[in-house]
Structure formats: C-alpha cells, structure tokens
C-alpha cells in the first residue's frame, strides 16, 4: 500500500449530502440508479450514477445521508453527467455498501 501525505488526504473533498431523488438508469451497461444529492449551500445539488441496485431499493435511499467525493471533475456516463462519486465498500460478492455518517450531520459537512 502506498502512503500519502496529510496534504494529499485534505485535497479530497469527502462531503455529506442527503439523497433527494433516485431514478432508474436503463441506459447503463450495468444496473444503476441516477441519484441527486443535496450537499448544502457551499456545494449545492449534484447528480451521479451509481451501481448500487443489488443492495438498495430506490425508496430506502430517499432522505438518507451519504458520503461523496465532490471535487473530482464531472464525468459523462452515457446520458448522465456524473458530478460526484458516491463512496462505499465492496462486499465479497462485489456489491457496494454505501458509506454513511453514523449520525445525522449538516449537509456539506467535510469528513476529517
């Protein structure tokens, strides 16, 4: 494993946001959702696609807080402009378990 500096770590903007909408993404190569998240006043509302359909229903994601990387450049994923990276952990079956704060925090709060 490579080591990084503290400066490397602080350059990554890991922020908390609340899921506003979750829609099916039928054009995706692998099953995915299009997710819109409110990251607070400083960051605003951003959209991404995420391959998390195996473990999460759309309804259970609504209103949930998630952790996202908000300072990657936007990336075009088919017809969707992905504006942040939803973070998570792979299970042994390569499904994604999303990273969430343990308790509610303000939207836009930065992971320290």
From TrEMBL:
It comes from the Bacteria. InterPro entries: CsaA, NA-bd_OB-fold, tRNA-bd_dom, Tyrosine-tRNA_ligase_regulator. Gene3D superfamilies: Nucleic acid-binding proteins. Residues 8-112 form the TRNA-binding domain. The keyword tRNA-binding applies. The keyword RNA-binding applies. Keywords: RNA-binding, tRNA-binding. GO terms for molecular function: tRNA binding. This is tRNA-binding protein.
